[in-house]
Amino acid sequence: MRHQLRILSVLLAAAALLQLPACNSTQLDDGDSADVVLETGTITIPPIQGQIDQLTGVCTFTVTDATAQLFNKPKNEFAVTSPFNDIRNLYLQVAYTWDDALVAPTPDRVILLPGTVPANGSFTTQFSAILLGDLTPDKEGHTANLYMRFHGETVDGTPVSALGLGRTLSIGSCQ
Question: Helix H segments across the chain?
């Protein structure tokens, strides 16, 4: 019985690995049950500016919202009409990998996303690539690689998601 359970565990683990997305800059959704696919297009992440506060002498940061273009791609000819095939944006998951081991890690973040991507159309959403509270002095002058997954759902509640890989976040220096 244990041997059969071990074999079943190995098969389930192998099946899960096969479901992992490839490392492309644009990734299709991970749900086969939806009639549409969520894709990412241009993602722009402005550098964060640092400057010395004249009153306190402390480095302060100015964060400008990032933008991402999202596409709703139909899988068949029945999935081209709105509103039944629209994708409601839900949230963005972001993981940060800093360029220097001395930089304090930033916890993965979940950022709410506004808007709806119309069937067979596109939508540009705005979001903050990092929370202001995560910008500690040790991050000044550093860069983070971002792993981003955009999450949404179709009108009937079917989840869809898309990766936005290969993006970086640059933090300016106050000097």
Answer: 2-18
